[in-house]
Write a structure and sequence with these properties.
single chain, 254 residues, alpha/beta, seven-stranded mixed beta sheet, 9 helices, 41% helix, 18% strand
Length: 254
């Protein structure tokens, strides 16, 4: 289980977790984690790809029967001791899960008042969805129905978190990164502020759901609860969602 981290933090004391220092190419401190700029990598793009730079590094440089992605403060809930008194998925649980399941992703979050597309448009640069929609039509037409289905619905698995068998991970990454790279060539992401510059991390969250939806008839998918070791400010998040819905949408290309 890759554990993406951009700073030193308490991590699970379980052999199944493999911390990766994301954005290492620009880091000023070492934490003893696996750097994401060894071998073939996109570490320099961490400000826009977020935890996906760890995913790219693993795709290009790591071979395993199963690979997953978690964060230094977000994990799938389980029975192993985790940071700050949490309980996280153990190595044994990962093995058991992969013996019966092809793909595990986060239990969906439900957005009662809006669709996944309108939620993205209220919080991010809405035009990016149109660029992504066009790229999928041009390069992955068979995924267009799943893209539209995910955009219409009101629930989403977040954080780019998953656990997959190795062959499915390779198939997913081989599909994901060319799409994001194509979108990257069509938008001006560098002119944006730090929050909105995380474009490809945000789009990646949506695309994980699209990929799972497209393969749901052929894959056994399980949804797992996520624990935030820093606590989950649900009320504050709910208020921010309402504020974004009421506020004007971000400028199309800002």
């Amino acid at each position: 289980m890759l554990t993406a981290a951009h700073k030193q933090a308490p991590l699970p004391d379980d052999p199944g977790y493999f911390p990766v220092h994301v954005g290492h190419i620009r880091a000023s401190h070492e934490f003893g984690y696996q750097p994401d700029d060894e071998g073939e990598n996109i570490s320099v793009k961490n400000d826009s790809y977020c935890e996906l730079t760890a995913l790219y590094w693993a795709w290009k440089n790591l071979k395993a029967d199963a690979i997953g992605l978690s964060h230094y403060r977000r994990y799938f809930r389980g029975d192993a001791p985790g940071p700050n008194g949490s309980r996280v998925l153990s190595t044994d649980q990962m093995g058991t899960l992969m013996s019966t399941t092809d793909v595990a992703i986060a239990r969906p979050r439900y957005y009662i008042v809006e669709s996944i597309e309108s939620h993205y448009r209220h919080g991010h640069i809405g035009d990016d969805l149109e660029v992504l929609r066009q790229v999928i039509r041009e390069t992955s037409l068979g995924y267009s129905p799943s893209f539209e289905a995910v955009m219409r619905r009101r629930h989403l698995s977040l954080y780019n978190m998953f656990l997959m068998r190795g062959e499915h991970f390779d198939a997913y990454a081989s599909w994901l990164f060319p799409i994001l790279e194509d979108v990257e060539q069509r938008i001006d992401n560098e002119s944006r502020g730090p929050y909105q510059r995380r474009t490809f991390g945000y789009l990646g969250e949506r695309l994980l759901n699209v990929w799972v939806h497209a393969h749901s008839e052929n894959l056994h998918v399980k949804y797992l609860p996520v624990v935030n070791t820093d606590g989950e400010p649900k009320i504050a998040k709910g208020l921010r969602m309402v504020q974004r819905k009421l506020a004007p949408a971000p400028p199309s290309r800002a």
